[in-house]
């Protein structure tokens, strides 16, 4: 059977119908919803997993189409895919290759089915998922027939360039174009194509059960800080190897891991509260009621006084509009400043740092407060969009200078780390209420496993680098909030490492532009090739790091907001052309 046997307009016009005759969301609607759910609120540079499971489908259904406790959103999702892509026992993934008119991958919803099947397989080792068993279950999910008695792949679903692999490649290219790191990778041999799907299942069922056992024996609260939750787990024994590997991720690459671990913790809480009810019943779900906030440190422009404010995090996969905080000086609306974060607001005092802070909010039925967790230390990275400011922007990497705000009783740990040659800092300045700032902090060695007893294992874990290599970028002309640079003034990369040499590769659109051994901690002259998306990959002694760099043409720069431009305007004519200057924006108005 060829693709012509299936109506070519199926994706856009056919609507799946439930057994009760209710119109269900279409394939295209599910496709858009999945893309938004897995990418919205992710900071630039984050890894993205297309981690589709029955639980995430339930969350997506409730979020995009309303709460409906009697519905099985997974069944509705599979019905939409079957209606669009399956006919006479055959599946036609080629119908959703490429991008739609809005530049989004058309195949995300189909790839989600492949991941869903892998997530449902109860196996504690990736390679133990047999290709034959996997495709048998895929046929059940899609309502397709196997190719023949020996080959269990669905009819018409070819391998390689004719099968699902091009859809994974389009998905990866889409993520890179938006500054995200794709994570899908194939397995080895006959397991190659199953490997793509399995690589997207962050925490599988057997691993969840082990984590549930760990949670039962601990007292980590009802809504712990995801970063601290991951830190706690790193010190647990007998964790599955796959989970321990995930916990080793650092920086923005750890965003999805923290989100997944926090989600497993919430699922454990839900199961404890079910009391015999259906696990999918929305009435018995214990959703996180709080937005998480970090810290933003700046200095008063005139007095130089240190100021700490709340730095709210965007929740992953949840688009919030008109969220207002009830602050002492009146209500304030949360405004997205950059992907993953809202603009800083409010005031944070030493008392707030020690006891934590809950700020009431309105605007979403699942949220009631913005939460700043009580912590004894904060690691703050330099804000690349605001010189001199520092913020909760993830875990610092090798070769990076950062600011450390700690309770004074932890100073003894820091002095011990410095005496052992593990770290250094430039200044130590008391702040207020028993807190001290250490500026110009940098980790200088990687023998942290030799450290003896400490007062705070969490502080040690936060400072210990997860990798001995990183890629830094500096200089150039950075485009604020977009994590990009102007193509005419590109950045200069530096490979930071604890080793004598490293290897750096720079590629664009799959073409290698630079591949050489470089000296760590020294700037590297890269032959940039104009605007576009670049992938920088560094390796040293078996350790690797990847970083994306986006360069923009002048025409791609975002228009400044009216508040930044101001209202002062000047108009004039020259050489028959009319010009209008508002702030720093110059526009030509055509022939005078």
Describe the structure.
With 592 residues, this protein is α+β, with helices and mostly antiparallel strands. Helix content is 27%, strand content 25%. The protein contains 16 helices and 29 strands. The strands form seven sheets. Strands 5, 6, 7, 8, 11, 12, 13, 14, 15, 16, 17 and 18 form a twelve-stranded mixed β-sheet that branches. It has a six-stranded mixed β-sheet with strand order 20-21-26-25-23-24, with no helix packed on it. Helix 2 crosses helix 5 (108-120) and helix 5 (108-120) crosses helix 6 (131-142). The longest helix is centred in the middle third of the chain and has 20 residues, at 255-274. The termini are far apart. Residues 1-13 and 276-287 have low confidence and may be disordered.
In whole angstroms, the N-to-C terminal distance is 63 Å
Computed structural class? alpha+beta
Name the helicity range: 25-40%
**Proportion of residues in extended strands:** 15-25%
């Amino acid at each position: 059977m060829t693709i012509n046997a299936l109506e070519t307009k199926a994706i856009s016009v056919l609507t799946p119908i439930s057994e009760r005759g209710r119109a269900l969301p279409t394939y295209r609607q599910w496709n858009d919803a999945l893309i938004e759910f897995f990418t919205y609120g992710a900071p630039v540079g984050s890894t993205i997993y297309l981690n589709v499971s029955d639980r995430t489908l339930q969350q997506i259904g409730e979020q995009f189409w309303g709460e409906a406790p009697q519905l099985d959103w997974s069944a509705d999702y599979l019905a939409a895919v079957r209606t669009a892509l399956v006919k006479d026992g055959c599946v036609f993934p080629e119908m959703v290759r490429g991008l739609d008119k809005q530049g989004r991958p058309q195949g995300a919803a189909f790839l989600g089915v492949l991941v869903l099947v892998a997530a449902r397989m109860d196996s504690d080792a990736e390679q133990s998922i047999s290709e034959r068993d996997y495709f048998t279950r895929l046929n059940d999910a899609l309502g397709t027939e196997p190719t023949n008695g020996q080959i269990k792949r669905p009819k018409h679903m070819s391998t390689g360039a004719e099968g699902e692999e091009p859809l994974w490649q389009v998905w990866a290219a889409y993520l890179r174009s938006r500054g995200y790191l794709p994570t899908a990778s194939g397995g080895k041999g006959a397991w190659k194509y199953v490997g793509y799907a399995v690589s997207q299942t962050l925490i599988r069922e057997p691993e969840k059960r082990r984590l549930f056992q760990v949670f039962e024996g601990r007292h980590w609260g009802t809504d712990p800080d995801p970063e601290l939750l991951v830190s706690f787990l790193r010190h647990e024994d007998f964790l599955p190897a796959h989970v321990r590997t995930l916990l080793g991720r650092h920086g923005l690459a750890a965003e999805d891991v923290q989100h997944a671990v926090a989600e497993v913790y919430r699922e454990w809480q839900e199961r404890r509260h079910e009391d015999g009810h259906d696990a999918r019943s929305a009435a018995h779900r214990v959703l996180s009621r709080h937005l998480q906030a970090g810290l933003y440190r700046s200095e008063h422009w005139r007095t130089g006084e240190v100021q700490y404010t709340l730095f709210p995090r965007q929740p992953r996969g949840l688009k919030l509009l008109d969220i207002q905080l009830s602050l002492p000086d009146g209500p304030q609306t949360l405004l997205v400043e950059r992907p993953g974060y809202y603009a800083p607001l409010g005031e944070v005092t030493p008392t707030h740092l020690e006891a934590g802070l809950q700020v009431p909010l309105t605007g979403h039925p699942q949220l009631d407060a913005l939460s700043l967790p009580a912590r004894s230390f904060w690691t703050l990275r330099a804000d690349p969009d605001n010189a001199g400011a520092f913020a909760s922007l993830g875990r610092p990497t090798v070769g990076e200078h950062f600011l450390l705000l700690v309770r004074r009783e932890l100073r003894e740990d820091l002095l011990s780390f410095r005496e052992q040659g593990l770290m250094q800092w430039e200044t130590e300045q008391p702040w207020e209420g028993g807190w001290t700032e250490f500026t110009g902090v940098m980790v200088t060695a990687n023998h942290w496993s030799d450290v003896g007893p400490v007062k705070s294992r969490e502080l040690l874990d936060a400072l210990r680098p997860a990798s001995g290599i990183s890629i830094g970028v500096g200089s150039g002309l950075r485009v604020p909030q977009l994590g990009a640079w102007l193509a005419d003034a590109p950045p200069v990369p530096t490979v930071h490492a604890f080793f004598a040499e490293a290897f750096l590769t720079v590629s664009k659109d799959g073409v290698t532009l630079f591949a050489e051994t470089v000296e760590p901690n020294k700037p590297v002259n890269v032959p940039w090739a104009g605007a576009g998306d670049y992938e920088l990959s560094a390796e040293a002694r078996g350790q690797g790091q990847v970083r994306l760099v986006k360069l923009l043409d002048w025409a791609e720069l975002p228009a400044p907001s009216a508040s930044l431009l101001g209202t002062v305007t000047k108009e004039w004519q020259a050489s028959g052309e009319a010009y209008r200057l508002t702030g720093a924006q110059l526009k030509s108005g055509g022939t005078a």
